[in-house]
Amino acid sequence: MEPLSPANNPPERGVAWPAIGAGVLLVVIAIGAIVLLTRPSEQRTAETPSAAAGPHPYGERLQFADLKMSEVENFVGGKVTYLEGQLANQGDRTVNGVTVEIVFRNSLGEVVQKETLPVKVHEQRGPYVDVTDLKAAPLKSGETRGFRLIFDHVTTDWNREYPAITVVSVSFQ
Known about the structure:
The protein contains three helices and eight strands.
């Protein structure tokens, strides 16, 4: 039997605690990022200050009418939902920005999706109708123009009725 000596024993390896700790930290960060990015939009938009403040006082002078919803398939195979109609400025100021809170409900009347979006208005460009920001095409007092709201996703739990529209911010020229 040969005596044990440092020459014929492999060196002992310690546990690589720093590497294990870094790996665990990366996993925790990845899980946290996934949770934040996949939360329902209701939770994300409910935290915005403009939506939390309630309806804007000038919102009573902005009338949304002739609502229509449509769904189209985009070029990558996903679905996009549009809410379109007419926006009338019945106030005395020229509006160059409107943000609305849109609330979708289920068959029990519960909120299943909440979105806060800027209103885009129709603008004739040659033979085509395009949508643009109100900053580029302000809505004058007494004027009515077509509008469009675009949703990348609408929950399948939605009751198929028109969502509630609340004006949460308005900017003026």
